[in-house]
Amino acid sequence: MLSQDLIAGAIAAANYAGLSPRAIYHLVEQGRLPVIRKGKRLYFRKSELEAAFRSEAAPAAEQKPKPNRFSTFDVM
């Protein structure tokens, strides 16, 4: 069961997440993406990738759009 949840390598994780491998490496370097390091190899859990991206998308979706600087009263 655990082996079905593991993704081996940043390229495979990038394909799974729909990102570039460099974006995956960048997120790992920042500590924003959970990773298992074994030697030089990186392993990712699908469930943790999904949770990481779900938590990043939620605050953006909850933010209210900024009001337009031109209101209906500014029209000439």
Automatic annotation (TrEMBL):
Q: What are the Helix-turn-helix domain coordinates in residue numbering?
A: 13-55
Q: Which InterPro entries did the record assign?
A: DNA-bd_dom_put_sf, HTH_17
Residues of the region (Disordered) are 55-76
- Domain of life where this protein originates: Bacteria
Offer one Pfam family short name for this entry: HTH_17
Q: What is this protein called?
A: Helix-turn-helix domain-containing protein
* Organism the protein comes from: Sphingobium yanoikuyae
